[in-house]
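Side project, low priority. Logging it here so it doesn't get lost.
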Amino acid sequence: MIASWNVNSIKVRVDAVLDWLASSDCDILLMQETKSLDENFPTERFAEAGYAVEIHGQKTYNGVAIASKQPMVLRQKGLGDAGDEQARYLEIEVGDFIIASIYLPNGNPVMDEGNISAKFTYKLAWMERLIRHADALNQLGRPVILGGDFNIIPDALDCHDLARWHGDALHHPHSLKLWRGLTYLGYADSFRALNPSRMAFSFWDYQGGAWQKDDGIRIDHILINAEAADRITASDIDKTPRGLERASDHTPVFARFEGARFGAKSQISA
C-alpha cells in the first residue's frame, strides 16, 4: 500500500504517524508539510519501525518526506529550479515505480490590492513546472505515482459546499485549468477513478467545527499514469487519524497496487 498524508508538523505528529503505519501495514508513506530541517527529522524513530526515509526539509514551513519499507533510490529533490527555496517535491524509485511526494502551493489570497498576488502567481508557475516534469516522467514507459497535498478541489463531489470555494486558489479557473493539463497528460486521480460518484474528504479545517460537521474538502490526491493504473486494485481515504487528539487537519489517502508488493490491506473508517 502507498499512502499520502499531510502531517502538519512531523515533530508534533510523529507518534500518530508511526501508530498509523503500524496499524495499516503501509509499504510507502508520502508525507507533506513536515516543517522540519533534514537533520531534525525523526529518522531513527522510523528506522526502528522498519522504514528508511528520504527527506527534503525546510525550517518551519513546507517540507516533504518519503518513508519506505522497501529499498528506494533517491531520484530528485525539488523541480529543478535552483532559485526556488521552498521544499515541495521529492522523487524516488522503488522497483520499476517512480514515486513523488508533492506539496503544491496553496496560492491564497488570489488577489492583492487589485492585482494577482505573488502567492497565486507562484502556485501557477509551480504547477506549470510540475506539468513539464510529469510529462517527461510519463515518456519513460514506467509506472509513475504522484501523491500528495495538491491544494486543488477538482469538483463538486470533493467539497461540502462548492459555492464557498468559487474564486479561491484551490478551485480557481486558472488552477483547475492546470490541474486538467496534468490529467490530460494521462494521469488519473486514483480515488475518483475507482469511486466515480462518492463524496469524500481528506481535509477538515480546525475552525468552525468542520470535522464534527463533516464540512471538508478533498485536496490530497494520488495521481497515476497508465502504467500504474494497470496495476491499481484499490484507492480510498482513512478518516480515523483526523479524529485523534492533536490531529493533523489532513488524513491519509492511499492506493494499493498488484505486482509491486504494495497490496497490504488496512482498516479504514468510512
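Brief comment: The chain has one domain: 2-257.
Revisit when time allows.
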